Amino acid sequence: MSTKRMAFGSLCLFVLLLSPVAAAGGGGRPLVYEALQGFNFPEGLLPKGATGYELDEDTGRFRAYLNGSCSFSLEGSYQLKYKSTINGYISQNKLTKLSGIRVKVLFVWLNIVEVVRRGDELEFSVGIASASFSIDNFYECPQCGCGFDCLSGQTSKLRTNLFASS
Q1: What global pTM score does this model have?
Q2: Are 66 and 82 in contact, with CB atoms under 8 Å apart?
Q3: Which CATH architecture has domain 17-165?
Q4: How far apart, in whole angstroms, are the C-alpha atoms of residue 126 and residue 146?
Q5: Nearest to residue 151, comparing CAs of 143, 159, 140, 139?
Q6: Alpha-carbon distance 13 to 5, whole Å?
Q7: What are the DSSP calls for 9-71, one per residue?
Q8: Fewest CB within 10 A of the end CB: N or C in the chain?
Q9: 13-61 per-position pLDDT tens digit
């Protein structure tokens, strides 16, 4: 094998390893879920099918990639929409300056801008208000289209503390 072919092969492998899709781990499960767990968050903050992520370990700036946009309903009163790219900053027990995730409360779509873990609860902030949910609601990843209960086609109930002003 010529040195040109070996160099080209090495370059292709290097580019492949740096691509967002290559962030998938063994068994087809993306490492983005494991990265969330490394910051003390459950993997269920992201829906199934995340394809990869980027993380600047110095600043905490991250990007998570989904295979297209995603939406589903929970508890009949919450609808969630994820863009194909979710941005923000991550640190231990805290996601800040989020973009790419929206929740419908009553008739209004609001951006989820922050998630903070406080013990066994996750507090989601939309800026002017927040809601806390038991962390055990997020041990499983929701699925685009049907949320947590895809077999029966019904939406799942969340244990929640209603939105409170911040």
Answers
A1: 0.72
A2: yes
A3: Roll (2.30)
A4: 23
A5: 143
A6: 12
A7: HHHHHHHHHHSGGGGB-GGG-BTHHHHHHHTT--GGGS-TTEEEEEE-TTT-EEEEEESS-EE
A8: N
A9: 233 233 333 334 444 434 788 889 999 999 989 998 888 999 998 999 9
